[in-house]
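cron nightly-structures :: item 1 of 1
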Amino acid sequence: MELMMTEAILNQQELTKKNIEQLLVQLTNAYQKTKSDRQEITTQFPPEDEEFSLLEEIELLTVNLRGYASQVQFTGQIANAVEAVEQLHAMRILNVPQVARFFFDSNDKYEQMKNYLRMLDYLRLLLLEYLHAEKQ
């Protein structure tokens, strides 16, 4: 019985890893489709009192999440997993005030960028799921 559960966890973890790898490819394609959105966002959402602009915040999220995903893709694990879990929980896309304002205040505009942000958050959730399965 215990062996079957271990195999099921490993199969689930392998499936999650494949999903992470596929999502990395999809994110690259989705980001390329945001070019016109990004150009307009630069002028429509200038930095206010924040340290980073909206696009810089999105870039920071992208770099962090892609970094974790690349570790999973190439090594099958994430260094400092406990710290990574804490960071991934804190890295909720809509926890960034500028991103939340953009997401909810731009009505039906910038759908490509909003789709990209949804994919980023999904990647964050997959990474958490992968790390959770790794602990079992």
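cron nightly-structures :: done
Helices lie at 2-33, 35-44, 54-75, 81-90, 97-105, 111-135.
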